[in-house]
Inverse folding.
């Protein structure tokens, strides 16, 4: 399939489908195109993979959010392509899909149509556990995006036995219970009636072979804990709690198989002066009475440094000044947010005798006290505070 179809179209659901509806739709498609039901049918196999890819994205809240926003270019938003990218239909391993499907829905052979590999399944590949790390980002990091290199402790493949757990990686014998298949057949009541279901061989754990002599380096586990260096990029506009997946960078499973994923969770460091509101930034600016009355230049913080703005004469408390494009990248709507300057005016609590005299003299001036029209005009501008 040279051009990917819309994931919602693949599963036959709309964008407002619930997780349960998505799961049921995938199950229906997977059963329809399951290799055991369509032996030797390459087109059905591709559709089976396509449905698995769609389900992998739409069943995950974070991936679904990125897909709804970026479509099939979602993989370019931080972790595109290669070992760290999202799955694609061509990149899915068929046995991995079959194993996941069997774990979630049960493994059917549909009345003995034969396995996905010409009547016999390949031994199951184990998958290692995911590793979750939190990465602290400043607003400055989030504004421009950031690439980080970290050393992450994970369980990695034993170099002596190549992850097998067997001495020199070769001290194996064929499992006598499953005869090297990694699974055994059992009868099971399914939606199709009594069927021959496939279960993991309890003797070899689904590998099809047993260790005759354990690796002395890892004591037969096939893994050792050590740090691996990982480089990844967080796209501009990332949000608190957003999770990105680096495929295959998690724990290697005991006894061999495929590694899990490294899940990178964004932790936003609060800025000392700026408050984040989605893609917008808010700064509370406290003015003294002379500046609010007479106007003048003031210095304010922005996400890219300090900036000077001019305060108009007669600026009232509660007025909001907007610096367009001075916020953060808006990944939901596109473009960049704004910085909102929320004006407050400081009323001094203690005055000298001279200051008291000055204010007393001013109080008698006609333009010092607000008229009813002035009050209504100012209150109407402050309505946003109470909405």
């Amino acid at each position: 399939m040279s051009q990917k179809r819309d994931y919602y179209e693949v599963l036959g659901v709309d964008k407002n489908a619930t997780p349960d509806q998505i799961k049921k739709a995938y199950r229906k498609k997977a059963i329809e195109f399951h290799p055991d039901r369509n032996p030797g049918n390459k087109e059905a196999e591709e559709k089976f993979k396509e449905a698995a890819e769609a389900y992998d994205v739409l069943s995950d809240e974070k991936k679904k959010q990125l897909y709804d926003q970026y479509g099939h270019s979602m993989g370019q938003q931080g972790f595109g392509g290669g070992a760290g990218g999202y799955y694609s239909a061509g990149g899915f391993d068929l046995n991995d899909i079959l194993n996941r499907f069997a774990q979630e829905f049960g493994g059917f052979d549909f009345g003995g149509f034969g396995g996905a590999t010409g009547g016999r399944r390949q031994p199951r590949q184990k998958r290692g556990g995911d590793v979750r790390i939190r990465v602290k980002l400043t607003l400055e990091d989030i504004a421009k995006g950031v690439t980080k290199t970290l050393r992450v402790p994970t369980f990695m493949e034993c170099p002596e036995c190549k992850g097998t757990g067997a001495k020199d990686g070769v001290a194996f014998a064929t499992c006598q219970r499953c005869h090297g298949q990694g699974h055994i057949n059992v009868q099971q009541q399914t939606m199709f009636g009594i069927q021959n279901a496939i279960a993991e061989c309890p003797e070899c754990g689904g590998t099809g072979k047993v260790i005759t002599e354990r690796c002395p380096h890892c004591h037969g586990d096939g893994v050792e804990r050590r740090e691996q260096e990982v480089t990844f990029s967080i796209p501009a506009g990332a949000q608190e709690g957003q999770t990105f997946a680096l495929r295959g960078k998690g724990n290697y499973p005991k006894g061999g198989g495929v590694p899990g994923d490294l899940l990178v969770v964004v932790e936003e460091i609060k800025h000392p002066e700026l408050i984040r509101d989605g893609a917008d930034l808010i700064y509370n600016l406290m003015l003294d009475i002379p500046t609010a009355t007479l106007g003048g230049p003031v210095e304010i913080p922005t996400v890219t440094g300090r900036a000077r703005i001019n305060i108009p004469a007669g600026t009232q408390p509660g007025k909001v000044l907007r610096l367009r494009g001075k916020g953060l990248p808006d990944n939901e709507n596109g473009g960049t947010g704004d910085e909102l300057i929320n004006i407050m005016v400081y009323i001094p609590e203690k005055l000298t005798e001279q200051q008291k005299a000055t204010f007393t003299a001013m109080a008698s001036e006609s333009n010092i006290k607000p008229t009813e029209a002035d009050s209504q005009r100012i209150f109407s501008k402050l309505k946003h505070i109470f909405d």
